[in-house]
Structures are given as structure tokens and as C-alpha cells.
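User: Small ask, check this?
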Amino acid sequence: MIENIHKDIQNNLRQYNQVLEDMNPQGMLKWGYKKFDNQFAITTSFGIQSSVLLNMVSRLCLQKKIKIFWIDTGYLPPETYHYAEKLIDDLSLEVEILQSELSPARMEAKYGKLWETNKESDLDKYHELRKIKPLENGLGKYNISCWASGVRSNQTENRNKMKFIDAIRQRLSLRPLLNWTNKDIFYYMEEHNLPAHPLFVKGYSSVGDWHSSSPDGIETKGRDTRFGGIKQECGIHTKN
């Protein structure tokens, strides 16, 4: 049944995007769960704005039904780990942690510190090992057909071209917050008394791994502060 729904949506993406355009983010999450049941999940990075989507799931009382995957590279800043623990506790979330089969030490022994070479190909290798493969393994383990994330169109050039739902790596990707602005995020967090990521007050508007994140500067802001300015995307949200 769900396989047929998946095929129908994938074959009629334009039509379904028109339907989703009239929904708010909470409506899209309900739609995803209704369509895919236990084959629907969300991903989180516990980054600067991750609390918004997680709060929406918790307020819909779906957090016990919708699987929540956290891709932990093993290189996240201490502040992110502490922030994740707080949100998990505050929102009573059940989160499954996805990690690479290679420990950080073993990866560095085999390939070196891939983020230090200033080569896009090495960053691609790093992201494949520590982000994309762990995510795909987790999605495959539970036969997830559709997964939602908190990506927004104003974050990168790639995301500016995104639709509310699209196909990525043979699965459907739903983006409930795609059209939200920074103000939308701010007011939602304020309204629901959501804690800010500790690095936000230190000038970070985007944060991932400790070695590939930096606070906003005069010339670089948002995703341009990531990966030494070499690239904006880690590959999770791009079509491969």
C-alpha cells in the first residue's frame, strides 16, 4: 500500500507540491504521517534552529510514532551535545542516533583529517562516511519511505530551488519549513519558549561539526561559514 503511495507521489510531484503549498508545517507533518505511517521519519542535527521542527512534532503528539533520527558525526561541538540532551528532555523525545561504522579515530587513521586538505573531494568523502551512509543505513533499517527535515529555501542556493516534497536517493524528502524566514523561526521559538543553541549567542547562525563551523563574519554568514567556504551542502539534501 505505502509502496503504491510512494510511486504515485513520485510520479506526480508537481501535483502534490501544489497540495502541500496550502498547508502549514504542522499540516505537512500530519500529511506525511497519514500517508506513510511508520515509514515516515524526521531528521535533526540539533543545530541552531532544530528546536522548531522537533517542537512541532512533540506538540502534534506524534513524537512517539514518528521516528526521529539524529546523525551524530562524532565531531559535533560540546555545546551541540548538551543542547541535544536538553531538547530531548524538555520535549520528551525518543531519538535514534545514527553514526558511521568507522569511529573518528579509525577514519583518521585510514584517510587522515579529511577536513584539513581544503579539497572538496575530501569533504565529499568525509560527508559520505559520517553523514550520508549513516542516514541511509538508518532509513533502510526501518524501510523509511519519506523523511522530513527543517531545511529552508533561504539557506543555500541548492535549497532555494527545492520543493516541499521531492525524491532524493530513491526516497521522498518533505520540507515543512521550506518557506519560513529567520523571523518566522525567531517568533516561533519565542512563542513556545524554546531554548537557543548555546553557540547562537556566540555569533553562529549555522553550526555542524566543530572543525567546519564558524561564527558569522563581515563577509560570510549562514551556510557560507560552513566547510571553510568550500561548499554549502554536506550532501544529505542533494540528489545523488
